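Support request from a user on the community tier.

User writes: "When I paste my structure tokens into the form, the page sometimes reloads and wipes my input. The last time it worked, I copied everything first. Here is what I submitted, just in case something in the input itself triggers the reload:"
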């Protein structure tokens, strides 16, 4: 049952969207009091005081309360809400989220506690949308009036907080109109004045910002007899000095994405359609144009050409994604995956990407707000796939292509629909002439007409026919027409079952003209998982040497059957790919080889990233599959970044084909890569697939291992309950099977989860057994980070001497194994211990060493934490300038990582270095186990 209670406006109740009749004002006042104190007992005396205190009291107050309760109970019957009589009063029991006031408070709390500004903005915006007017509108009692005033002030404060967040996100341009109006309504609010001045300054209007300051200064003097506050005066001075600190702190400035596909080389025609696209520009709302039409009709061709024509209109960049709405090899791309790709393109560091998918979407919209950008959403499956990717800023232009008519996008979002039909005869003729020359067509007009009839006005078909003709420039077109005529098994069109053209005949014409080896490569490419494919993967797919594969690919490129969209990387139009798969006749050996190539190469990359990690048994690749090896971590990480979509497709294909071991082997091979990027959502997804695959086997070790890793990544997402359940399940399996290393690993991860929850006593109950077990079985590399973990837990509990011993052991072992991450971790804890035992110089020395190591391995999250701790140490030594400089570095890193809570704490330290109550330690991140 959907029940909603409103206090932030008229006091009202709804069930399934239909209002309930509550009755007269006094009864609504009683309901308001009970809802404000939802699930709490309100005494009869409190009710009388809050409802009747400023009116004439009823002769029998208790009887009046009882009567009100009877009427309210009857009114709330449809809502299923109870009002219970308690010994001291009455209690209305309701889910707090159904009361707008309590939901508002919860959203504000969560927004303030959010780890990134994008998430905070989303939550605070949602909270403010709950307000429908003044609280308890139409009701007047002394208690309600007082609470109303408090809530209005609270809302004002939340609006100010939201503006601060939005300014940090760089949304000054979008904020300016509302800020100016709001400042006019609240001319003496200095915080609001500062926000408007900052927005004006960042918007390129420093003179207006200075003028507004003078207006506020005069008003304060005239009305209150005071000068502006120190923060407002400081901002005025910074604007006068054009202080670089006033620039947007953590909006990525370096990333102006240029993701458009290459400009079509031989575009021609489509004059009407280009004019329609031009006409859409200049509107006051988000411009959305949906280009629809059959496959091969040239939708992407048209959209790309138009976008390149208007690059000057999008100086802030162009985002592009192929949503794979009709990819024959798999499902359409989830909108969340596209958003994550956009965040990468916009320069958001992996560690700064919010965990929550909705927060990622909010961050994406925040980053493009106020920007003159093009968002090109190619090959969409339907409107539902597109809607989460729409920006909210009228400065952006959205271009969508799809084979379907996106009526939902038109109806709900005002998109302009542009239907793309076949080229006219004149346009088709001109396009073919552009490819092969007008003289050649004029020499054989009848044959030209036949060729164009076969192509039926589809640019894709014309380009393939032209490629065949260009390959043999000396052949008469009649010879080529004879070849094509032989392929006249006019089958259904490959799109939507419509008999418009036999693309299959056109494809087969080009296919039959290929050399035998190129034809075999073409067919095999139709079976490859993923969105594109590299040269070495093709070599394994086809079991051919790389040099011969290159020769075949050049032949396929010349025939327009494949495109090399990046050096060494190839892809096909999805209709061509579907035809290629038909030619391969389900070559299971080729599929096995390409899966093995990806699995074994990913395994090699993981071993390069984490050489001290215990290896798994992976077997030998199929004959003909040649996995790649890596010279260093940088090359391995780059390969994983490029191939990630294909590796996810390989895991899915392996699951579909019952290759269960390879499903969890892919997950294992991506583990370190995901952990270092902080992409726990991806980790949870692949490990959930791995758990399901392991459960299809009798491999108890795999079942424990997959649960262990899934529990680890659940901890990274804050899903502690699920993580604990999985880990205890993994521990039970490891104990049943006598798997001592598995038990040790589970205890280590359980300790990490309890650390993430701030319960170091519980963490120690697992980190100590983990250390003991690693020692018993002689895994010295793992023993090092177990020592470091125990040392951190003990340090947090004030057990400094024991902690120091463990960290020194960890340091010695880590250096012996060349494990820089554990070495840095141990030094960090030793610095913490030294600071808290009074050896401040030693603390600085440890921190500096740890800082250098974390910087070497690119662990900027822990780098920020160490800088924060170093600042405290400098401050304790009286080195206030060094403390300020160090905290400033920590602040910049926290801002870049969107750690709003930590950034706010450091700002407070910078504002008032004299405080002695500030925390000695930046909170440790919820970083899952190293292994």
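"...and here is what came back when it finally went through:"
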């Amino acid at each position: 049952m959907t029940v909603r209670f409103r206090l932030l406006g008229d006091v009202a109740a709804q069930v399934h969207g239909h209002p309930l009749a509550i009755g007269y004002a006094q009864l609504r006042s009683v309901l308001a009091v009970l809802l404000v104190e939802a699930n709490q007992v309100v005494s009869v005396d409190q009710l009388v005081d809050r409802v009747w205190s400023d009116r004439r009291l009823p002769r029998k107050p208790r009887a009046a309360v009882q009567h009100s309760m009877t009427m309210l109970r009857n009114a709330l019957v449809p809502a299923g809400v109870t009002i219970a009589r308690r010994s001291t009063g009455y209690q209305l029991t309701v889910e707090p989220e159904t009361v707008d006031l309590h939901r508002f408070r919860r959203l504000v709390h969560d927004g303030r506690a959010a780890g990134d500004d994008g998430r905070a903005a989303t939550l605070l915006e949602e909270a403010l949308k709950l307000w429908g007017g003044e609280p308890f509108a139409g009701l007047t009692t002394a208690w309600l009036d007082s609470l109303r005033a408090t809530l209005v002030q609270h809302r004002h404060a939340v609006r100010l907080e939201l503006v601060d967040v939005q300014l940090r996100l760089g949304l000054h341009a979008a904020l300016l109109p509302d800020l100016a109006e709001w400042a006019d309504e609240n001319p003496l609010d200095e915080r609001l004045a500062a926000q408007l001045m900052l927005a004006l300054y960042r918007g390129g209007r420093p003179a207006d910002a200075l003028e507004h300051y003078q207006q506020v200064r005069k008003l304060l003097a005239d009305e209150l007899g005071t000068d502006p506050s120190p923060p407002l005066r400081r901002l005025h001075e910074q604007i006068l000095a054009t202080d670089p600190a006033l620039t947007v702190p953590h909006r990525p400035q370096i990333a102006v994405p240029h993701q458009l596909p290459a400009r079509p080389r031989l575009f021609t025609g489509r004059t009407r359609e280009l004019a329609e696209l031009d006409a859409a520009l200049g509107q006051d709302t988000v411009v959305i144009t949906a280009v629809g039409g059959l496959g091969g009709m040239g939708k992407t061709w048209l959209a790309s050409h138009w976008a390149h024509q208007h690059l000057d209109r999008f100086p802030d960049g162009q985002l592009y994604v192929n949503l794979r709405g009709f990819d024959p090899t798999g499902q359409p791309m989830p909108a969340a995956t596209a958003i994550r790709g956009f965040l990468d393109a916009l320069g958001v560091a992996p560690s700064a990407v919010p965990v929550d998918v909705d927060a990622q979407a909010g961050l994406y919209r925040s980053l493009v707000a106020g920007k003159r950008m093009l968002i090109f959403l190619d090959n969409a499956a339907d409107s539902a796939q597109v809607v989460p990717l729409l920006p909210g800023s009228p400065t952006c232009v959205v271009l969508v292509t799809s084979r379907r008519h996106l009526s939902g996008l038109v109806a709900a979002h005002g998109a302009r629909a542009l239907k793309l039909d076949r080229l006219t005869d004149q346009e088709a003729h001109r396009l073919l002439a552009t490819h092969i020359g007008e003289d050649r067509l004029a020499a054989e007009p009848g044959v030209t007409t036949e060729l164009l009839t076969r192509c039926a006005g589809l640019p894709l078909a014309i380009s393939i026919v032209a490629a065949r003709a260009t390959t043999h420039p000396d052949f008469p077109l009649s010879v080529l027409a004879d070849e094509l005529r032989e392929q006249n098994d006019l089958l259904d069109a490959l799109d939507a079952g419509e008999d418009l053209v036999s693309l299959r005949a056109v494809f087969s014409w080009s296919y039959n003209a290929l050399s035998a080896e190129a034809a075999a490569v073409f067919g095999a490419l139709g079976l490859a998982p993923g969105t594109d494919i590299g040269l070495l993967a093709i070599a394994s797919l086809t079991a051919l040497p790389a040099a011969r594969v290159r020769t075949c690919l050049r032949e396929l490129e010349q025939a327009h059957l494949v495109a090399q969209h990046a050096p060494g990387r190839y892809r096909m139009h999805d209709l061509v790919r579907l035809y290629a798969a038909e030619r391969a006749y389900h070559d299971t050996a080729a599929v096995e080889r390409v899966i093995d190539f990806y699995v074994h190469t990913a395994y090699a990359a993981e071993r390069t990233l984490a050489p001290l990690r215990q290896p798994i048994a992976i077997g030998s690749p199929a004959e003909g599959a040649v996995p790649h090896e890596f010279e260093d971590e940088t090359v391995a990480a780059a390969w994983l970044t490029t191939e990630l979509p294909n590796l996810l497709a390989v895991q899915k294909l392996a699951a579909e084909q019952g290759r269960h071991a390879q499903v969890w082997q892919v997950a294992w091979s991506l583990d370190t890569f995901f952990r270092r990027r902080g992409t726990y959502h991806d980790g949870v997804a692949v490990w959930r697939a791995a758990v399901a695959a392991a459960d299809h086997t009798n491999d108890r070790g795999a079942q424990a291992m997959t649960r262990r890793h899934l529990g680890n990544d659940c901890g990274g997402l804050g899903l502690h309950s699920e993580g604990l359940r999985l880990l205890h399940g993994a521990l039970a399996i490891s104990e049943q099977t006598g798997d001592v290393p598995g038990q040790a690993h589970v205890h280590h991860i359980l300790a990490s989860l309890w650390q993430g929850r701030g319960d170091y006593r519980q963490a120690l109950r697992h980190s100590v057994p983990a250390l003991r077990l690693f020692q018993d079985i002689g895994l010295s590399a793992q023993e090092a980070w177990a020592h470091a973990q125990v040392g951190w837990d003990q340090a947090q509990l004030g057990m400094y001497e024991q902690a120091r011993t463990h960290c020194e052991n960890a340091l010695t072992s880590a250096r012996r194994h060349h494990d820089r991450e554990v070495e840095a971790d141990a030094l960090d804890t030793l610095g913490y211990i030294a600071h808290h035992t009074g050896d401040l110089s030693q603390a600085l020395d440890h921190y500096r060493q740890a800082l250098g190591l974390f910087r070497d391995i690119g662990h900027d999250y822990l780098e920020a934490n160490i800088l924060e701790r170093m600042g405290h140490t400098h401050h304790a030594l009286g080195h206030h300038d060094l403390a300020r400089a160090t905290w400033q570095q920590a602040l910049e890193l926290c801002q870049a990582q969107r750690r709003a809570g930590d950034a706010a704490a450091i700002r407070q330290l910078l504002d008032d270095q004299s405080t002695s109550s500030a925390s000695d330690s930046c909170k440790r991140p919820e970083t899952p186990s190293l292994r």
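Agent notes: The reload is a front-end session timeout and is unrelated to the input. The CA atoms of residues 257 and 774 lie 47 Å apart. The radius of gyration is 33 Å. Escalated to web team.
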